[in-house]
Amino acid sequence: MTTAPFPVRPEPADLPAPLPEPAVAELRLEVVLGALSDPLRMGIVRKLLLESEAFDHPCGWFGLDRPKSSLTHHFKALREAGVTRQRQYGLERRSHVRVADLEARFPGLLRLVADWTPPAA
Fold first, then answer.
1. Which phi and psi (to 5°) does residue 40 adopt?
2. Per-residue pLDDT tens for 68-82?
3. 104 and 27 Cβ atoms separated by less than 8 Å
4. Secondary structure letter of residue 82 according to DSSP
C-alpha cells in the first residue's frame, strides 16, 4: 500500500458517527473521478489534503463564496462518491478526505489531486 505524501491527522476520541458513505470495497473509480471532475470539488479536496488545520473542517473554513445550497450539493457529491467523510456536529457538518481508503483502492490518485493547479479565477 502507498503512503500518502501529505499529513493525515489522527482520529480524535468521541467523534460523531460518519454520515452514510460507500464502503472501501464499493469505491468505484468512475464515481470518484466524476465527483472530482468539478473544479470546485477538486479544490475542496486539494485544500483538505494540503492545508488541513484540524481533523476535519466545516464548510466555512474553505472560504468559498457560494450559496449554502450549492456547497451542500458539492460536499454531498464528494461524500457519496467516497472521497470525503462527513460527520454531523450539532448543526454543522465537517469533512475530511478518506486518505487511507482512497490510497488503498486507487494508489496515487490523491497525489494527482494535491499536485493539480486550480484554474485562474
1. -65, -45
2. 889 999 999 999 999
3. no
4. T
DSSP assignment of 12-67 = PTTPPPBPS---GGG--HHHHHHHHTSHHHHHHHHHHHHH--SSSEEGGGG---S-
Nearest residue to 10 (alpha-carbon basis) of 69, 58, 66, 54: 54
- Which residue has 481508503 as its cell numbers? 101
Over residues 27-47, the mean pLDDT reads 96
Question: Phi, psi (5° rounding) for residue 98?
Answer: -80, 70
The pLDDT, as a whole number, for residue 12 is 84
SS3 84: strand
Domains located in the chain, CATH noted: 24-115 (1.10.10.10)
